[in-house]
């Protein structure tokens, strides 16, 4: 199996190391900038994408800036490559229908990189929810906050893609893991409200905080808070059901479940968990899908679903009102 890497920033280098750990030895890279930061890896670097694709990679890992995902993904899919695309799929809806059509026509694996689907706390919450432990889901709230200048020590946050609108930055796109997993847990969304603003002194072009209110087809309601602001760092999810409550503290490594019948909390901790475990499990799953040993846990259609929700949230923020979802395509432009 030959893998082509596109984008070797922090997450791209993480994927590269994990591929090596999983036993993949034939790895090429496509870069438009000088090949730096490869940690001594024996990687053949191409400055031309067509030349890289002519080497017939089995699959491609796309981890370049968000706004550059789709052009690369389309060319790779046409060339017959299986796709791992870092989240979100793109910065807009343009080209997504074409990508879906090519992937289906060529029967390719296309896995969006929603790594939190492999988080042990969220996996346990989903199991508890599906087993009926808290009854019918009534409400869900997901929160994530981390101070943007602290994300990548040693790098100027003002020059990164998160700070630049043309590269697909901003809290809604950059922190969309939460938008993915609330739909994974609570189902499809029918109504969306959003406030997305730049409220801090951060020197960026994009929104640094977003509050998204959701109505689900099941009748449940939800809220998703996303920010570049919180100095202490925070990531959590709270699910309220007719028969109990589940709280997942993703950074602290803890799941708590309140059982209304007993009036007690059951606390479970997963202290041995390391952050890279999610990325490693995700990449191992992708390779297994490419080899036909597993079925994708995250589909391309689900990635498109998140993209449509982001577009609806942006539309709501611009219009200053709640909107039905999914919106007509013309309204999302």
From TrEMBL:
All copies of domain GFO/IDH/MocA-like oxidoreductase, residue ranges: 123-247
Stretches assigned to the Gfo/Idh/MocA-like oxidoreductase N-terminal domain: 1-113
GO molecular function: nucleotide binding
PANTHER family documented for this protein: BILIVERDIN REDUCTASE A
Protein name, as recorded: Gfo/Idh/MocA family oxidoreductase
UniProt source species: Eiseniibacteriota bacterium
Phylogenetic placement of the source organism: Bacteria, Candidatus Eiseniibacteriota
């Amino acid at each position: 199996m030959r893998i082509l890497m596109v984008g070797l920033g922090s997450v791209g280098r993480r994927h590269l190391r994990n591929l090596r750990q999983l036993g993949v030895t034939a790895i090429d890279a496509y870069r438009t900038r000088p090949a730096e930061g490869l940690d001594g890896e024996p990687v053949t670097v191409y400055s031309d994408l067509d030349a890289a694709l002519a080497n017939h990679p089995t699959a491609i890992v796309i981890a370049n800036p968000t706004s550059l995902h789709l052009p690369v993904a389309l060319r790779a899919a046409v060339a017959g490559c299986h796709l791992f695309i870092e989240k979100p799929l793109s910065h807009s809806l343009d080209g997504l229908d074409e990508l879906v059509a090519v992937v289906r026509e060529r029967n390719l694996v296309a896995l969006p990189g929603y790594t939190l689907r492999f988080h042990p706390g969220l996996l346990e919450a989903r199991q508890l929810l599906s087993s009926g432990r808290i009854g019918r889901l009534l409400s869900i709230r997901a929160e994530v906050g981390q101070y943007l200048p602290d994300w990548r020590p040693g790098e100027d946050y003002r020059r990164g893609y998160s700070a630049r609108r043309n590269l697909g930055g901003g809290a809604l796109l950059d922190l969309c893991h939460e938008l993915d997993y609330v739909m994974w847990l609570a189902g499809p969304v029918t109504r969306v409200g959003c406030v997305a603003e730049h409220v801090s002194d951060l020197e960026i072009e994009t929104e640094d905080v977003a509050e998204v209110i959701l109505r689900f087809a099941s009748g449940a309601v939800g809220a998703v808070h996303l920010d570049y602001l919180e100095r202490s760092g925070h990531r959590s999810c709270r699910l309220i059901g007719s028969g109990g409550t589940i709280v997942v503290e993703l950074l602290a490594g803890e799941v708590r479940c309140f059982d209304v019948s007993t009036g007690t909390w059951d606390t479970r901790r997963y202290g041995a968990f390391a952050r890279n475990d999610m990325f490693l499990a995700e990449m191992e799953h992708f390779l297994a899908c490419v080899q036909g040993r597993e079925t994708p846990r995250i589909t391309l259609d689900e990635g498109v679903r998140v993209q449509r929700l982001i577009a609806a949230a942006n539309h709501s923020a611009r219009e200053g009102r709640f909107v039905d979802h999914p919106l007509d395509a013309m309204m999302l432009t």
